[in-house]
Specification:
Strand order of the largest sheet: 1-3-2
Order of helices and strands: HHHHHHEEEHHHHHHHHHH
Structural class: mainly alpha
Number of helices: 16
Mean pLDDT: 88
Shape: globular
Largest sheet: 3 strands, mixed
Helix content: 55-70%
Distance between the termini: 35 Å
Number of strands: 3
Radius of gyration: 21 Å
Strand content: under 5%
Number of domains: 1
């Protein structure tokens, strides 16, 4: 029987990664390893429900202020590259998001109004058997065996973002990796979260091994949520086709669709701001009411969008855009699989999303068609 994460391994990962940091050959490697260590500290705190001394953490990660400045300077470079890409296709993405939101809003709401949510736990055996058979179906059972047999799946007590259902840590230098599920339970919900995180594992482990390529993908692209959301879609279809807890599967997948819809709306809201709001992260200093006042004229019902913005936990440009385009790209990879996946795999670290969508004739109309087909599968 599979048990959840071996806590001793987290400590081993921390020690080995701190040692590895001293052997990094260049700034790209230092950025990747130091970020991994920082996230590993956070994960150990969450898994064990403890707190490290902040100064000790920073000393282990950066050593001194000079190293800290070098690493942050490199991260700033990635950030501004990401901004340049965003500015180049902001107008395209705004129009793309708007067409989708206008067309799917009523259909999504009508499905949601007819759903009676049911959430219950499975037995431990059923949970692992369902997920193993799914991973076997997509020919990744050996990948799953590695994480289960080495106890690299953890339940965490809390997340630094209330919208985070889980996350994956991957060290691109020594390939250490682990999966974290917030408030893990043997439920259909956790099955979908686990599928999402294994999408990341597959994605990172199959990426070009060049550290610069990895960092570009991890820090400045808008496509690194594509495989994770694709795995959610694959699990949903697998469970329906095999008549596995169908009603609860539909309920849970609809919940994830609603969450992704909110993320798409948040990305659209950010696309409405002038470019100067993104210089020096000025948009982050806007209050919720200030942001609502800036964008409300773009919506039919001002009160609804104001209420949505005020109750949004946080706005983050890269997060909203990666989830929005992860949803868009994944629905095309799911429905037009072979050629698109090959093309995506070859280009994903530095993917020009606008060119990719336009060249492959993947417009909002095509997305809406596939999306509405998916909604039909949820209706009872």
């Amino acid at each position: 029987m599979v048990d959840l994460g071996d806590k001793r391994k987290l400590v081993h990962f921390l020690i080995s990664s701190c040692e590895l940091l001293n052997k990094c050959k260049n700034e790209d490697e230092k950025v990747a390893v130091s970020n991994y260590i920082a996230n590993l500290y956070y994960s150990i705190e969450s898994v064990l429900n403890i707190k490290f001394i902040e100064k000790k953490k920073n000393n282990n990660i950066f050593g001194n202020r000079r190293n800290y400045r070098k690493i942050t300077k490199k991260l700033d470079c990635y950030y501004y590259n990401m901004l340049d890409s965003f500015f180049q296709f902001k107008s395209f993405s705004k129009d793309y998001f708007q067409q989708i939101l206008v067309e799917v809003e009523n259909d999504l709401q009508s499905v949601n109004d007819g759903i009676y949510y049911t959430f219950s736990n499975l037995s431990k055996d059923d949970f692992f058997d369902i997920f193993y058979q799914f991973m076997r179906f997509i020919h990744l059972d050996k990948l799953l065996d590695y994480y289960w047999n080495n106890n690299l799946i953890y339940s965490v007590f809390y997340s630094n973002n209330q919208n985070d259902l889980g996350y994956t840590l991957f060290n691109p230098i020594n390939k250490e990796s682990s999966i974290y599920i917030t408030d893990f339970s043997y439920s259909i919900h956790s099955l979908f979260v686990l599928a999402h995180e294994f999408g990341h594992i597959y994605d990172f482990s199959s990426l070009d091994q060049n550290i610069t390529i990895f960092n570009q993908y991890y820090y400045q692209s808008f496509s690194d949520e594509t495989y994770s959301i694709l795995f959610e879609r694959l699990l949903f279809r697998y469970m329906l086709n095999n008549n596995i807890h169908v009603e609860e599967c539909r309920d849970n997948y609809l919940s994830m669709l609603l969450n992704r819809h909110d993320l798409l709306l948040r990305a659209y809201i950010l696309s409405l701001l002038d470019n100067n709001y993104y210089l020096n992260d000025n948009y982050l200093s806007l209050s919720r009411s200030e942001l609502a006042n800036i964008v409300k004229d773009h919506f039919v019902t001002e009160s609804d969008i104001t209420d949505f913005i005020i109750h949004t936990y946080a706005f983050d440009l890269r997060s909203e855009y990666t989830y929005a385009f992860g949803d868009i790209l994944s629905i095309f990879l799911k429905n037009q699989y072979d050629d698109l996946v090959y093309d995506f795999n070859m280009k994903r670290a530095n993917l020009d999303i606008q060119k990719y969508l336009v060249d492959n004739r993947l417009g909002p109309t095509e997305y809406i068609k596939y999306y509405k087909d998916e909604l039909k599968l949820i209706k009872k």
